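Team,

Forwarding the record for the chain on the shared tracking sheet. I've put the sequence and predicted structure together so nobody has to dig through attachments.
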Amino acid sequence: MSRLTFYVAIAVSMFGGFGTASAQIASHEFGSSCEEVACGECESDRFGLPASSANSSLWEQLSFYGAIDGAKQPQDFGVNANLGTRMHVSYAAPLLADYGVGFQIGSAVVLSDNAVQVFELLGEDTQRTQSFTTIGLFQSAGDWRWGAVLDYLYQDGFDSSSLGQFRFRVVKELSSQTWLGFTGRLRAFDDTADFLGSSVTLRSINQGSVFLRHYFPTGVQCTYWLGIAGEHGESNAVTGPARPRDESFVFGADLLAPLNDHLAIYGETNLTLPGDTGTVDAMLGVVWYPFTNVRTANRKRFAPLLPVASSSTFGVDLLP
């Protein structure tokens, strides 16, 4: 199957039902502060938006996302970067509703090509396919939320490899519009790969960061974080091996900007210093919530606390 055919097949499978759902969505008035499709309860916060509440439908937290994805990580051996397309599906629902416990699951595919010519000149592959899977649990109890997931990454680039990491998050709701929290990433398992006949080790990069998230009256969501990333390799495919770099500062942000009741622009980035050997990852695209109001989806009690894994949330290190 050609790369173009694969792109089209994924797009059709994930968004094939868009026309039917859009027709149903069109029957609702945009901008209403209390729509049946939005929250199922006639309660509003002080901004007139549907109040954060328990889900009124098992399908409220089903979402689809398509984006441009760019990544440069230590696994690119100091001489490469990747640019491509990402598509993912995410779902969450109550597990023990009376206790505020829910589960989340999501899957993503990223198809990318090299953005630098060095791999091609060295005789390595110039395309990469990545498959991310995220599964976990979360709980909402009063002003506190917590969650933990296992991320699995299968990728096929200069070689195939399978990697895993744990992510966890703790949140304190300072108000109905502002969250303060901590996000951690811990390596679960690594793998070895072949690069031009030499064995290298691939592994996730540990990271811990404090974040602040604010929800604006328009439904816009903005998050900023700052933290520390564990050591990462600084070896280069051209100049040779180098000792790993110790802990580094990491910072990033995400942004969700509603276009209407069901579509929003969403993007995120994560940057590990220094820029030449650390991670420079970002994605920007459109997310679609066919069964709920995108302005309040992330504030619902049974909304997934952690996003589906991506290059921004799953940095990959390389050690020769």
